[in-house]
Design goal:
- A hairpin with a 5-residue loop joins strand 4 and strand 5 (143-144).
- The strands form 3 sheets. The chain has a 4-stranded antiparallel β-sheet with strand order 1-2-6-3, with helices on both faces. A two-stranded antiparallel sheet has the order 4-5. A two-stranded antiparallel sheet has the order 7-8.
- It has one domain (3-172): NADH Oxidase.
- It has helices spanning 3-12, 56-59, 73-101, 125-131, 179-183, 202-211, 217-221; strands at residues 19-24, 46-53, 106-109, 136-137, 143-144, 152-159, 189-190, 199-200.
- It is α+β, with helices and mostly antiparallel strands.
- The relative contact order is 0.19.
- Helix 1 packs antiparallel against helix 3.
- The structure holds iron/sulfur cluster (2 copies).
- One iron/sulfur cluster (SF4) binds next to helix 6 and helix 7.
């Protein structure tokens, strides 16, 4: 079996992931040097991006308030999220391990690299997923996939294996929809200006999210 096919096969196994895409490293060349895959693995030729769904039955019931004495779906969602991320990280490790054993230097990237002083990470899973054709950026600032809408968690493997890339997704997923902007309780999401998608203030979102012990209305109400 070819290396690329084996990578897809590992991801497709019963305890694998729901989505996998491959981005050639050239698709990251417009990023600042310290955000490119080569900043972490200089010989990177390909980035394998893995995605696992989070269950809609939970995301649909997220709310922006946590009332005292009531069950909050935020609590169920957080626990579910942890399990999904754990599983995803394990599969990313298995892919990196296979590639390493084939003689290609490879590393999987842990799930949460966010620096909460700037609310950015040194490596963007979302950007990598778009470059791997898994989806597009919605007005909510979330990755929107054809299969699971915004209900997706991500992980990635950097490898010096030269794997054929997947085509980019060019769908206009949002169109005239502006539900996430209307339901955003903090004002962090605004209508696109001069074609800028998303028009999103991550500091406003984060302050609201922290003060209310969660939100996710943009995730809950997205019709995709
Ligand atoms: S999580 Fe809440 S506050 Fe943040 S962008 Fe989404 S809807 Fe707005
Ligand atoms: S709620 Fe509508 S506008 Fe917002 S990301 Fe989803 S599809 Fe796009």
């Amino acid at each position: 079996m070819e290396v690329r096919d084996k990578v897809i096969d590992i991801c497709a196994q019963a305890n694998g992931v729901d989505l996998v895409g491959i981005a050639p490293v050239e698709r990251f060349s417009d990023l600042p040097e310290n955000s490119r895959p080569t900043a972490y693995l200089p010989s990177t030729k390909s980035v394998v991006v893995l995605g696992s769904q989070v269950f809609e039955v939970l995301t649909k019931r997220l709310t922006a308030q946590k009332k005292v004495g009531e069950v909050s779906f935020r609590d169920f969602y957080d626990a579910h999220n942890e399990t999904v991320v754990h599983d995803l990280t394990q599969t990313a490790y298995r892919v990196a391990r296979y590639l390493t054993n084939q003689g290609f230097a490879s590393m999987n990237i842990g799930q949460d690299l966010t620096d909460y002083r700037t609310i950015t990470g040194p490596f963007s899973f979302k950007f990598a997923a778009i470059q791997a054709g898994l989806g597009v950026l919605g007005k909510s600032g979330l990755l929107i996939t054809p299969e699971y809408g915004p209900r997706i968690k991500l992980s990635a493997v950097l490898t010096e294996a030269d794997l054929a890339g997947d085509p980019l997704n060019t769908d206009d997923v949002c169109g005239d929809c502006d539900i996430c902007i209307k339901v955003c309780p903090s004002g962090a999401l605004k209508p696109p200006e001069q074609g800028k998608i998303p028009n999103y203030d991550r500091f406003v979102c984060n302050s609201f999210y922290t003060a209310n012990e969660g939100c996710g209305m943009c995730l809950a109400k997205c019709p995709r």
